[in-house]
Write the structure tokens for this entry.
Amino acid sequence: MARFRPDLRERDVTPEPLWLRRREFLALGAAGAAALALPRSARAGDPTGQALPVAKKIEKAGGEEPTKWDAITTYNNFYELGADKADPARNAGSLRPRPWTVAIEGEVRKPGNLDVDALMKSFPLEERIYRMRCVEAWSMVIPWVGFPLADLVKRVEPTSKARYVAFQTLLDPEQLPGQRRRVLEWPYVEGLRIDEATHPLALLAVGLYGRVLPNQDGAPLRLVVPWKYGFKGAKSIVKIRFQEEQPPTTWNRMAPDEYGFYANVNPDVDHPRWSQARERRIGEFFRRKTLPFNGYADEVASLYAGLDLRKNY
Ligand SMILES: Nc1nc2c(c(=O)[nH]1)N[C@H]1C(S)=C(S)[C@@H](COP(=O)(O)O)O[C@H]1N2
Ligand SMILES: [Mo]
């Protein structure tokens, strides 16, 4: 996010990802002929990593073409692995996503520590193609693999006091060296209302393009809420807590005037330093109009009936 450079203008916070363009260009140039002669699976920029069993495919991006694997895995926000978009891919090696447990705490009848591999085996994995929108006014279409957060919520049996769900990223400066500097308060935390968390679009993602999630994208388990700005999607989650009070969220703590708890994609409410009316789809040149709730209004707007979305940004 663009917090530390108040001098930046909008066109600066949404930079042309030049290294992506350059890589595509190179693939078509000198190495192009050779690359095209290879089997598809071996071409530079194709998905890599362990294949996941996908039981079901759900297309939720209006038929829009998914962003390239290369872009999704080299243009990232993950401050624990560096503040520049290219840093997380470069620094991803220090994160060890196995073995990994997720603690379920608070207002539930079935708290405990869940092993991530066991979790992945216990829910059928789905491919969900979602539009994703960053508050920095760029967007992607991402073929996630995961399972509905609602399925996990149901399994742990929240009590009637569970009005909110809080998510926490791993705290370990050895694995996440960005945590040695206090650019943000660590660990990264996020939160949803329980009705948002149990909405069928909310996903716990464990993969991308049918492959296990790369570290820089939040391995082994990250939140995906496609109608909200990307920062709601906490990465590398170690704790999910059910509670009565609204939980604090990292970016809201850092800059409450810029980042609210709800963070619903809203083209009518500008960020204090730039417009939210348009966005640049990574890989495209012309900007597109940003849609209310990122295009998911039909499915989610009713969650916010009666809420003033200018105040509750
Ligand atoms: N732990 C953690 N989670 C995070 C972030 C972060 O810095 N740390 N950045 C957020 C922001 S601002 C965005 S836009 C998305 C980016 O996800 P992606 O890199 O997989 O596209 O992750 C979100 N989750
Ligand atoms: Mo973001």
Q: What stands out?
A: The first strand starts at residue 56 and ends at 60. The chain has ten helices and 13 strands. The CA atoms of residues 110 and 155 lie 8 Å apart.
